[in-house]
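Have a close read of the entry that follows and walk me through the local backbone shapes. See right below:
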Amino acid sequence: MRTDFVTEPARDTPVIAEVEVLVCGGGPAGTAAAIAAAREGAKVMLIERYGCLGGLATGGLVLVLPPMVRGEHQVIGGIGWETLEALLETGEAEYRSPRGTSRFDPEGLKRVSDEMCLAAGVRLRLHSWAVAVFGEAGRPEGVIVESKAGRQAIRARQIVDCTGDADVAAAAGAQWEKDDRALGEPFRIGNVDLARWEQARREDQEAVQAVHRAVNEAGGYEGFLGLSAFPLEEGVVWGNNYLAEGDALDPESLTSLEIRGRRAAHLVVQHLREHMPGFEKCWLIDTAWQIGVRCTRRVKGRHRLTYEEFQSETHYEDSVGLGNDFRRPDLVYEIPLRALIPAGIDSMLVAGRCISSGSEAMEALREIHVCWVMGQAAGTAGALAAKEDCAPSEVPVPELQGRLSAADVPLVLPRA
């Protein structure tokens, strides 16, 4: 089969900015990285391909945060905790149990993320997609972006890849492993009589479960479909789901699953109206406009985190934060700086669901609250590397840890 190519003419790409730290990707990891770097006094730009910050937490309608504490010990601190407290203060987040799992309003997180970035002095640039890097092999000097303004370049002393898919690290030549995991298309349903639904679940649990199974089948979900009341808005139900596995680096696969996910949500609402008590007059508010990608690339870094290390509570001399497993919140683990540094690439860090880890470890690492931790660590390290004009691997670990501790980031495993 013949493959056709076109030859693009050489061109001069205008440099639109020169910064000390360039953060690519404005999800929880990216916002935390940009805020942290700017608070260290670095000149920072944050680029994001969509029109808002928050990543899958906002555009993907992933509206739940696992516990950020273990008993009396803080696990997630720093910018992540600060963000949750800001949402709680305005009534845009709410605990399901004291200091336990919480839910948040995605619109609130968009606004709070904007405000925290701007207050720190971050230069935001939305609607800009990182498509390439430039510089010497192994030492990128900046990123090429595409937007409505055309093709442009941004120079940077340090780059933090928070794209989720490690797009920038891969373009710079970093090695990586790949996961094809379940993708989902969360949605919200409005005008539900929650009291009637709850009554039916109490009085005829078996019948309600039968309807739920039929709804799952009607939507064509290959895995779970979870329906739960959204406490911040009266009469609203949140639908989280496992739609199907797919290659989230393939636009055709993503297109097919996006369309399928919207159709599934429509069919779910139709079936619930007809068969589930309390849903007779319900309607579909929205579906996520970012499909729920759980993992794609995992960069090969200077240290590869494994789930066995989490279970054995391994301590690292270069720990830059803690995380916990959303499935087992009491399982707390340390995150070493080395896992955020791609092997063989200078002037770059990664944070979020693309750091160096095994597949099972990534299942615990990829959650919103842990992404905040990784992002804050990477942003702080990037700012120090830019200041010292050194590679991230050469940043003095005690100084980095001191900066993070001063920003209320717990670094050492809490002992029960």
In short: The first helix runs from residue 28 to 39. The first strand starts at residue 15 and ends at 24. The chain has eleven helices and 23 strands. The mean pLDDT is 95.
